[in-house]
Specification:
The protein is α/β, with parallel strands linked by helices. Helix content is about 40%, strand content about 15%. Strands 1-2-4-3-5-8-6-7 form an 8-stranded mixed beta sheet, with helices on both faces. Strand 1 (about 30-35) and strand 2 form a beta hairpin. Helix 2 crosses helix 10 (about 285-300) and helix 8 packs antiparallel against helix 10. The longest helix is centred in the first third of the chain and has 19 residues, at about 65-85. It is globular.
């Protein structure tokens, strides 16, 4: 495939260059800056397709999980190549799919956290003293945003129960991971996602995380009845295992909020295996397993 960039760790500068190269080469893609992070970085939105049904993909919730940003960007680029050439992608003809559907990507929900994990605590800008203090010298495993709030614990889904669980574990203040903030949707990154989903009538959504090669599909009584069968199809395409929520991952996440508020199917895909951050050398293997599932998600 004639791809535009060499894959490397997706800090903000690289992401800007990648999106700009796609914009110039593929006018079918519409990029926008949909919001700003706590430290002022752009939260990008990419969309392609002219159909009525709208489908949402989002990644980069956690800084050390930057392989999900690469996956979202690579998949969107491969779709654009398939659209231009008319050739199938993982067996799917996107020229046909995109006449019926519009795919919307937020490849990096948490650009500050991604930047910190890749390039160091100084990337927190005015929040440097906070992250330096709580990070204890380890920026590589930083997951939260620049204010020390874990975005995937900041959604209004089982909020009270989540805070009780955090307190039991002694999580009360900004931290590299797991601190959900003082109120749901307190963070601009979270609000960018929820505002978009309230404005756009998405039929379904998928959040990309790492690692484990698992797929989470349910959340409480509002889980749509078709969600499990959809999840089974997606697992068949990827070889991933069906998973159930547990512990601190049981509430406060995007998938949980989307199911609870929108009452439509949403999934969390845990890409790859190993320890976060998954090394760059494993990206191609990780992508090859995930891409057929992502394509099926668009086509189903």
């Amino acid at each position: 495939m004639d791809r535009t960039v060499t894959v490397t760790r997706p800090d903000t500068q690289h992401l800007i260059e990648w999106i700009d190269s796609l914009r110039k080469k593929y006018p079918e893609m519409t990029p926008t800056v949909y919001g700003r992070s706590r430290a002022g970085r752009p939260v990008f939105l990419l969309s392609v397709g002219t159909g009525k049904e709208k489908i949402f993909y989002c990644g980069g919730f956690h800084g050390s999980e930057w392989i999900t940003v690469l996956t979202a960007m690579r998949f969107s680029e491969d779709i654009l190549i398939s659209l231009k050439t008319g050739e199938p992608l993982w067996g799917y003809y996107f020229k046909k799919i995109l006449k019926e559907k519009r795919l919307v990507f937020m490849p990096c929900v948490n650009p500050d956290g991604t930047e910190i994990a890749i390039n160091g605590f100084h990337c927190a800008r005015e929040y440097y003293q906070i992250v330096k203090s709580v990070g204890k010298g380890d920026h590589l495993h930083w997951n939260a945003n620049a204010a020390g709030v874990d975005i995937n614990h900041n959604f209004d889904a089982g909020w009270e129960e989540l805070k009780k669980m955090e307190l039991v574990q002694g999580i009360k203040t900004p931290a590299p991971t797991r601190f959900g903030g003082l109120a749901p949707e307190s963070e601009p990154e979270t609000r960018a996602v929820t505002t978009l989903c309230r404005q756009v009538d998405f039929s379904r959504a998928m959040a990309l995380h790492s690692q484990g090669e698992e797929l989470y599909w349910e959340y409480g009584e509002n889980t749509p009845p078709e969600s499990r069968s959809m999840a089974v199809r997606l697992c068949e395409k990827s070889g991933y295992a069906l998973a159930e929520n547990s512990g601190l991952a049981s509430h406060g996440g995007f998938k949980d909020w989307f199911i609870d508020e929108m009452k439509k199917p949403a999934f969390t895909a845990e890409l790859g295996k190993g320890e976060n951050p998954i090394p760059l050398r494993f990206f191609e293997e990780t992508y090859r397993k995930a891409a057929p599932m992502l394509a099926e998600f668009a086509a189903m």
